[in-house]
Amino acid sequence: MDLTQWLVAELDDTSARLDGQILSIVPSERQGERMPGGNSITWATYHLARHASLALQVTGFYPLEADPRLAEFDPAATVPGSGLQEVEQPWAAALDAAEVAAFAGSVITDVREYLATLDGAALDDRPDVAAALRAAGIDETSFGWLYRMWDAPLGFLVRWPLLGHITNHVGEMIGTRNQMGLSPFR
């Protein structure tokens, strides 16, 4: 198995867990519920999609412009930086679970396409992360941590925001589902 096949297989497994173990089990009207100390499934889904979408911009796979798929959402959810925070924001209560799931599914499909065409030799390349984040409208004062974290070779962007970050939040959502008493394994 080559690297590209492995990356795609990992993403496919995570995407199948999101769809089959979370979104198809937790009723959409409950996906906005928060457990003590945690985020809702709707928030975590929106959050992982916003990070992945931004990472695709930084890699050059997406143009550095507003994502037209965000037109469906409340303006508070679409300003640059909205959804990048780890903690659920007050405006997230207005997110529609079905719209968020569709947005995330579309972004994950794009991540898959990017990973499937990735040249492993490019993983050591260093994109101009700061310039791309500025062009995407990400405020350096509010999101300085993102500028610092992502200032790395392309391999990091593949390993974290495009794969690991998605997997991490899917795991978080499985935990939320279980806390809701909706585990299919009980």
From TrEMBL:
Which named protein is this? DinB-like domain-containing protein
Question: What Pfam families has UniProt attached to this entry?
Answer: DinB_2
**Organism this protein belongs to:** Galbitalea soli
InterPro entries on file: DinB-like, DinB/YfiT-like
Every DinB-like domain range: 32-149
